[in-house]
């Protein structure tokens, strides 16, 4: 689409004949047509020219300025959400890293392409209107609408998956899968996924052996001093939001190789004698088991995602970062608001289609298509920003 | 382009008592409710805004009555909280923000531009109905469990209180869109519908003020929209944006809220500046001094207004560095404001002052707004604000600027454009009495509150220490006086409508375009746009008062003023 619109004609050129004197062609003019000059040649020749504008060019320019101002307000409207996103991502980067694995990048990318195609057809529709190509105009509007519905459909599928997987905002956040079990995580960080599984299994094993042997679970992973008081089956394991709640682990000990007491041990009846067994750490255990010191590839993605490490919710077992739901709050709010704008856009395009079916648009009058397409481009642009910010986090 | 044929429209009989005008052209309720005529829309806004003002004012009187004694006087504490919340929300969102732009601006702006209407008449009507819808939402909150959060809706209280916050917030959200669309409409109108010969620096100052206000409306209001939406979503879905237990930050709400609400106060007052800027030269019979400076200062205030929101948050925990920067920029806003005030005073110097009612309101404005503005600068000093934050000093400050600034200017503008809009003159003597009563009442109500605040009386408090009682009672007495003044004004204004139209085209001798057509104007305003050959405040000496029609006419032609 060229930047310069064809000159809006000021002399009668449209296909429809000038309306008869009594014809109230100005659809929204509630004034009578007495003797104040609405029958000047320009208004007579341009039925879509409102009474308060002198020329179609003036009307078009006014509309153009108006829609750009409106788009500016829309940008500022979304800016608040982008600002909230920025603040939260700066404060809690691990939440965003953690959560993005749950999003289906493929569907997001398809949606991006769908919207881009719809922007193309929208722009093309403007050109069609300018050139009076009625059939092509209707076709392009229809394609735009179909793409928009497609976008909403894919969004629905994505939302549906999220609801099924328990990925809801706020206190309803209860993921059914652990992040390291996700295919997207496994594909990117296979060693880390496997390492997390190992940690979980070991914790479960300890929990099992602890319960079976009625031996208080060692505070430290690795089957250390069995003389610690009943730490087994203690509340935090059960209450831990992590589905794998079991005996305490010592992730901290993993990286630092310090014989430190793992955190998260609940107060048991007495201090856990495991504190006095510094040599039995996860590290030493793994070394003993011949598995070697955990590598950076195994550990770093888990720390970045807040699964283990200082930002994790549960210090004893691979879990998830604190307040992980914040991402999904932001995700649903931003994509939801965007989706509402897509839906409104569909409504407006349908209205344009109805007008186009009456062949109302032509070289003298294509403003509404132009403005609708501009709105649509903005909706597309906002998605172009949303997609990498939400789906392409590393 | 077109010849100045409008002068031909205005014949020697400027009164339009028998001729067709926009009030009489179409009859029936549907012709009003579905009108696209900016003048009718403006009149509907005026009636609606003043009704909301009466409601908010009634709440104020009840609040002030409650504060006559330290303990309970007439209402319970919970009711008190709800009442000051609704008083604030109604006044801010239903009255002052729409006030001058939507009511006076809609009536006068296209007329001042020689245009037939605003750029988007349907959008204009939509703006009005959004106002109505927002008002209904707010009233829903009012008649159910009215919100008690204060009009500022701070989280976490607003996200947890059991009162009905959502309709109030939704009402404000909808009103935001009303405001945005009005602003958008005015910007496009001013850019695209100026008549031939009217460059930017030949526009009236009221138009400049409306333009600056519209810029703020368009840029700032979406932010309050998203903020209120976030607060409502937080309240219903607990998504955790402002709730610390869910990982959110309540101070973030304050940042978002004040990012809009500070520019909002300039939406409230800048149109008032415009009204005053139009009134003073006319009633001093002297060209405005420093036209360009006044015009550009509106833009400067609009721009700077976006940079100072943190001065509402000096004690909210933001860093000292941030506070200092906000404080410094707030001082800067005093500069363009002062330029205006000094230029207006200089305009009056060696002029021939006519103390008609609009001028009385303008003079009152100068006095009261200066006090309000200066006390704002006091509050901008961080070390002072630490003591005065959330005290009655702040309450007095913003009432001085809002009541003394915006409302006084609104009343002045109503009296100035009343003859044009309705074709009737009100009783001038009652007008003057009303203006003086309002002025005195205003000062008696709010000046004691400065003292209360600096002595430690906190705001939004239901109970207070007995030592504050005398000042509270004085303030309440002033509030009653204000009520009487407003009531009197309403009565004589409505009375004037029952007369036959008797107003000339140009009762005040102004040079702006709206006074070149009849009072009330015909529904189409101008046949063709007049060609403008001079500034809006030039050549008052060419106008002479004609006692037969009680208005001004051109000396040479005997016709009413031409472009």
Q: What would you say this structure looks like, in words?
A:
- The complex is a heterodimer of chains A (394) and B (563).
- Chain A is mainly α and 394 residues long.
- Chain A folds into two domains: 54-169 and 325-391, Up-down Bundle (Four Helix Bundle (Hemerythrin (Met), subunit A)), CATH 1.20.120.80; 187-304, no CATH class.
- Chain A is built from 13 helices and no strands.
- Residues 1-37, 213-280 and 283-288 of chain A have low confidence and may be disordered.
- Chain B is an all-alpha fold.
- Chain B has one domain: Cytochrome C Oxidase, Chain A (Up-down Bundle).
- Helix content of chain B is 64%, strand content 1%.
- Chain B contains 16 helices and two strands.
- Chain B has helices spanning 6-9, 29-33, 38-66, 77-112, 121-143, 157-160, 165-192, 205-237, 250-284, 291-305, 320-348, 357-380, 382-388, 392-422, 428-454, 469-496; strands at 543-546, 551-554.
- In chain B, helix 3 runs parallel beside helix 5, helix 9 (250-284) runs antiparallel to helix 12 and helix 14 (392-422) packs antiparallel against helix 15.
């Amino acid at each position: 689409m060229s930047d310069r619109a064809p000159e809006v004609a000021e002399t009668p050129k449209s296909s429809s004949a000038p309306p008869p004197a009594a014809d109230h062609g100005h659809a929204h003019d509630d004034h009578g047509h007495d003797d104040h000059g609405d029958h000047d040649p320009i208004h007579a020749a341009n039925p879509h020219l409102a009474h308060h504008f002198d020329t179609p060019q003036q009307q078009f320019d006014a509309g153009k300025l108006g829609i750009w101002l409106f788009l500016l307000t829309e940008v500022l409207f979304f800016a608040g959400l982008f600002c909230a996103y920025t603040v939260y991502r700066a404060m809690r980067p691990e939440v965003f890293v953690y959560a993005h694995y749950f999003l289906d990048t493929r569907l997001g990318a398809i949606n991006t392409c769908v919207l881009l195609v719809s922007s193309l057809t929208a722009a093309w529709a403007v050109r069609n209107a300018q050139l009076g190509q009625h059939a092509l105009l209707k076709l392009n509007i229809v394609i735009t609408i179909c793409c928009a519905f497609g976008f909403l459909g894919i969004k629905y599928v994505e939302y549906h998956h999220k609801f099924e997987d328990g990925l809801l905002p706020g206190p309803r956040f209860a993921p059914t899968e652990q992040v390291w079990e996700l295919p997207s995580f496994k594909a990117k960080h296979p060693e880390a996924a496997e390492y997390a599984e190992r940690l979980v299994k070991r914790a479960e094993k300890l929990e099992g052996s602890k319960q079976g042997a009625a031996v208080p679970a060692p505070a430290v992973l690795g089957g250390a001093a069995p003389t610690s008081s009943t730490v087994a089956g203690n509340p935090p394991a059960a209450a831990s939001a992590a589905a794998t709640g079991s005996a305490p682990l010592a992730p901290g000990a993993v990286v630092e190789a310090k014989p430190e007491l793992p955190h998260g041990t609940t107060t048991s009846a007495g201090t856990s004698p495991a504190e006095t067994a510094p040599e039995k750490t996860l590290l030493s255990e793994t070394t003993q088991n011949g598995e070697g010191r955990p590598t950076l590839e195994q550990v770093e993605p888990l720390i970045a995602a807040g699964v283990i490490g200082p930002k994790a919710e549960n210090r004893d077992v691979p879990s998830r970062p604190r307040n992980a739901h914040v991402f999904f709050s932001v995700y649903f709010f931003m994509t939801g608001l965007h989706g509402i704008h897509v839906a409104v856009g569909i409504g407006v395009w349908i209205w344009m289609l109805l007008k186009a079916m009456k062949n109302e648009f032509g070289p003298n009058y294509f403003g509404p298509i132009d403005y609708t397409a501009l709105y649509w481009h903005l909706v597309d642009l906002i998605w172009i920003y949303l997609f990498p910010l939400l789906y392409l986090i590393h | 382009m077109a010849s100045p044929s409008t002068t031909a429209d205005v014949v020697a009989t400027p009164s339009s008592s028998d001729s067709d005008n926009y009030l009489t052209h179409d009859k029936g309720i549907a012709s009003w409710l579905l009108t696209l005529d900016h003048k009718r829309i403006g009149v509907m806004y005026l009636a609606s805004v003043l009704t909301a003002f009466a409601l908010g004012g009634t709440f104020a009187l009840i609040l002030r009555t409650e504060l006559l004694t330290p303990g309970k006087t007439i209402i319970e504490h919970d009711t008190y909280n709800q009442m000051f919340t609704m008083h604030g929300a109604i006044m801010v969102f239903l009255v002052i923000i729409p006030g001058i732009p939507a009511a006076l601006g809609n009536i006068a702006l296209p007329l001042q531009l020689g245009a037939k209407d605003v750029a988007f008449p349907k959008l204009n009507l939509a703006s009005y109905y959004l106002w109505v819808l927002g008002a209904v939402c707010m009233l829903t909150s009012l008649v159910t469990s009215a919100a008690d959060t204060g009009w500022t809706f701070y989280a976490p209280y607003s996200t947890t209180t059991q009162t009905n916050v959502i309709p109030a917030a939704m009402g404000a959200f909808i009103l935001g869109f009303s405001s945005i669309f009005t602003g958008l409409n005015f910007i496009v109108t001013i850019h695209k519908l100026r008549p031939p010969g009217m460059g930017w620096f030949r526009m009236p100052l009221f138009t400049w003020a409306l333009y600056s206000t519209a810029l703020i409306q368009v840029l700032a209001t979406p932010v309050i929209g998203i903020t209120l939406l976030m607060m409502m979503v937080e309240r219903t879905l607990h998504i955790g944006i402002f709730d610390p237990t869910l990982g959110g930050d309540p101070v973030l709400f304050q940042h978002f809220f004040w990012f809009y609400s500070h520019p909002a106060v300039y939406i409230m007052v800048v149109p008032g500046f415009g009204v005053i800027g139009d009134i003073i030269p006319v009633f001093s019979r002297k060209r405005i001094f420093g036209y360009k400076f006044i015009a550009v200062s509106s833009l400067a205030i609009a721009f700077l207004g976006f940079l100072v929101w943190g001065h509402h948050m000096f004690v909210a925990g933001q860093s000292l560095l941030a506070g200092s920067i906000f404080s410094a920029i707030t001082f800067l806003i005093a500069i363009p404001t002062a330029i205006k005030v000094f230029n207006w005073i200089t305009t009056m110097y060696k002029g021939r002052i006519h103390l008609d009612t609009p001028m009385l309101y303008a003079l009152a404005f100068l006095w009261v707004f200066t006090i309000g503005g200066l006390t704002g600068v006091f509050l901008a000093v961080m070390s002072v604000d630490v003591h005065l934050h959330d005290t009655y000093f702040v309450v007095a400050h913003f009432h001085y600027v809002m009541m003394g600034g915006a409302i006084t200017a609104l009343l002045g503008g109503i009296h100035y454009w009343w003859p044009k809009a309705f074709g009737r003159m009100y009783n001038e003597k009652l007008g003057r009495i009303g203006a003086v009563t309002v002025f005195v009442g205003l000062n008696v109500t709010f000046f004691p509150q400065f003292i209360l605040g600096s002595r430690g009386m906190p705001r939004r408090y239901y109970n207070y220490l007995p030592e504050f009682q005398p000042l509270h009672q004085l303030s309440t007495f002033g509030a009653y006086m204000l009520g009487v003044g407003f009531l009197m004004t309403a009565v004589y204004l409505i009375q004037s409508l029952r007369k036959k139209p008797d107003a000339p085209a140009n009762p005040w001798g102004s040079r702006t375009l709206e006074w070149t057509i009849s009072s009330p104007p015909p529904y189409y305003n101008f046949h063709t746009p007049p060609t403008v050959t001079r500034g809006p405040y030039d050549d008052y000496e060419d106008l002479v008062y004609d006692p037969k029609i009680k208005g001004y006419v051109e000396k040479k032609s005997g016709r009413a003023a031409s472009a």
